[in-house]
Amino acid sequence: MFSRVLVANRGEIALRIIRACRELGIESVCVYSEADRGAPYLDLADEAICIGPGPSKESYLNISRIIAAAEVANVDAIHPGYGFLSERAEFAQVCRDCKIEFIGPSPEAMAKLGDKVACKNAAKEAGVPIFPGSPGAIEDEEEACAIAVKIGYPVIIKAAAGGGGRGMRVCHNEMALRTNLRNASQEALNAFGNGAVFIEKFLEHARHVEVQCLGDKHGGAIHLFERDCSMQRRHQKVIEEAPGPHIEAKKRDAVCEAAARLIRSANYSGAATVEFLMDKDQNFYMLEVNTRVQVEHPVTELITGVDIVKEMIRVSAGEKLSLKQADVKTNGHAIECRINAEDPDRNFMPSPGKITRYEPPGGPGVRLDSHVVTGYTVPTNYDSMIGKLLVHAPTRQEAITRMERALREFKVEPIKTTIGLHRRLMADSGFVQGGVDIHYLERLLK
Question: Same structural domain for residues 218 and 365?
Fold first, then answer.
């Protein structure tokens, strides 16, 4: 097992990793930018090292500064969390070259599954259902138009690298496709340093279902069942829950087994999430693989009892997975609401600033993953998420009721947050009935 791990991230995921290291008897070293200087979670690490100014490119995205901090701190491994460098095969390779373990997949597995075009090919070879679309990156407009005619409109343009909705455009006709192709490629280039895009068939009324997987360095791979994250806005997830409501048992087994098969075929080690879209007949088509721990991993932890971050650390140290597929059982229902420092009444405008009142909820079945305390100042440099509020209950309806209660208790002032929006959603008939698709929230907010 490792002696010291460097946490190459910030905020709630940095705190999550620090806690996992503490419980495993591992010392943690947390890097931070000038914008995060004085953040309370830094005091919980065994050591904290400043790696540069607030802008991400000068700190959390600066590989040389992170590696320098790792070497100065004499760590055995680096945990990248999510976002920033977590899905950069280049960073994983630099760690390998510097004899520092990257807590995640190998550069080869990351390249195979992290690039959406390569991932589609791997999925096809593993017998995982995929959308019809271009076999590789689109070279020119005429090629794109020919493929769109063959598979039928609407189609969606996607960036081969990265995610989060960047480089993504839905096109209902040829004019829209020609107009958006260049714009999507440029956006992808600016966001990920890779302007490659591809197109595939777009489902108008789809649900977004993803399967949590774990793999080790000994060829082991399991799934921890699925999550439903259909409640989203601009491709950003707002509410996640598990199990997915109203999914037939045979369909659930099929998609989960397919996800584990894909991870196993890639010789993948660590946590991965295989994302699917599901049509009205509950047919599944793979979207992509996230080669990192995801924001919503605690949802799965609540229904399975598996500590995903600890498992990531253990398998990176060379241990086998601590459980086999037959050992994984689900219990009850879990829901996660992402609490962002945003104003829903002003088109979700970011609301940074000092928090003078912070009263987190508690009680049975409530979990809050947050790095925020009273007096904390939400910086302007980073993502607006300030916490993840989760509940666990025997049934979905009980979980919804518990979440509504927890949201009512949660007080964050004077900044604006999405707490009020989530309270509204817990009472929304579409969500309560479990029949939403990926565009439901955007329609609701119009």
Answer: yes
